[in-house]
């Protein structure tokens, strides 16, 4: 067991001419197993880029990312990705596919082409159904995701992220655009994964009150740098607008 499940050291990603600086500009952060961290910052601060870099979707210019003590590089990336589930900003579901098929897409990364050429195995389908049931979506399994509400879609995306049994869940604005009840359901789902399964969660949020309600720790980004890393209480006083 390593001290940290995630460790970024002086992480710097590509230079963006429009910003006149690298998008992530020397990020240092360490996250322990079982933490629930909220990532805050204005639009364009680099929150999505930081989450995407943790699953190897952003080229690293300088510095290192370690997941469970393993340094990310092209050789280690596949194994690292198995440990991390990701909820992309906007959901990233395939609208024409049913809920269950979207969930099954979450295991494409760990199955070979041969294993999925004739469709997913029965075991995978049962697991996908079980996850949808856990999300309160048994009835919707065969519906096209385009027909589901925003909150239901977000819970399909959570089921998809969970199908590989990740140890870490990254959620990019999981409740943006949802109404109050749907937001609560999604946040409570994340809270349950955290408290009952000990999952490490990093979630981008914009609401300081919700951040303080669910997360213990906040990391605030500004212009690709960490400007605050600490407890969630009292955030309102420090940052009037994030
Ligand atoms: N692939 C890219 N190429 C160039 N610039 C990018 C790219 N991705 C993001 N950016 C820029 O990097 C900055 C940070 O983006 P992002 O990580 O999406 O911020 P946030 O999620 O905090 O709103 C923004 O100014 C954005 O325009
Ligand atoms: Mg973003």
What layout of secondary structure does this protein have?
Blueprint: E1 6-13, E2 15-16, E3 21-22, E4 25-31, E5 36-40, H1 47-54, E6 60-67, E7 70-71, H2 77-83, E8 84-87, H3 99-105, H4 113-116, H5 122-134, H6 150-162, E9 168-172, H7 180-197, E10 200-204, H8 208-214, E11 217-222, E12 225-231, H9 235-238
Parallel strand pairs: 5-10, 5-11, 8-9, 9-10
Antiparallel strand pairs: 1-4, 1-6, 2-3, 6-7, 11-12
Helix pairs in contact: 3-5, 3-6, 5-6, 6-7
The structure holds adenosine-5'-diphosphate and magnesium ion (MG).
Question: What does this molecule look like?
Answer:
The longest helix has 18 residues, at 180-197. The chain is α/β, with parallel strands linked by helices. The chain has a domain at 6-96 and 167-238: Rossmann fold (3-Layer(aba) Sandwich), CATH 3.40.50.300. The chain is built from nine helices and twelve strands. It has a six-stranded mixed beta sheet, with helices on both faces. A four-stranded antiparallel beta sheet has the order 4-1-6-7, with no helix packed on it. The structure holds adenosine-5'-diphosphate (ADP) and magnesium ion (MG). Adenosine-5'-diphosphate is lined by residues 16, 19, 23, 41, 43-49.
């Amino acid at each position: 067991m390593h001290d940290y499940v995630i460790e970024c050291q002086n992480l710097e990603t590509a230079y963006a001419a429009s910003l006149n600086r690298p998008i992530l500009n020397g990020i240092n952060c360490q996250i322990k197993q079982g933490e629930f961290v909220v990532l805050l910052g204005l639009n364009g601060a680099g929150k999505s880029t930081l989450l995407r870099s943790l699953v190897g979707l952003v080229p690293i210019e300088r510095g290192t990312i370690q997941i469970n003590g393993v340094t990310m590089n092209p050789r280690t990336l596949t194994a690292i990705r198995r440990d991390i589930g990701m909820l992309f900003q906007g959901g990233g579901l395939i609208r024409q596919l049913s809920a269950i098929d979207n969930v099954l897409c979450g295991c494409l990364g760990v199955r070979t082409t041969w294993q999925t050429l004739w469709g997913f195995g029965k075991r995978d389908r049962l697991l996908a159904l079980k996850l949808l049931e856990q999300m309160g979506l048994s009835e919707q399994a065969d519906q096209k995701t385009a027909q589901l509400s925003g909150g239901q879609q977000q819970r399909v995306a959570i089921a998809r992220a969970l199908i590989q049994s990740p140890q870490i869940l990254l959620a990019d604005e999981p409740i943006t655009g949802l109404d109050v009840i749907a937001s609560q359901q999604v946040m409570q789902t994340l809270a349950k994964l955290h408290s009952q399964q000990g999952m490490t969660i990093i979630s981008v949020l914009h609401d300081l009150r919700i951040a303080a309600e669910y997360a213990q720790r906040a990391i605030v980004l500004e212009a690709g740098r960490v400007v605050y890393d600490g407890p969630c209480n009292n955030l309102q006083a420090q940052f009037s607008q994030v």
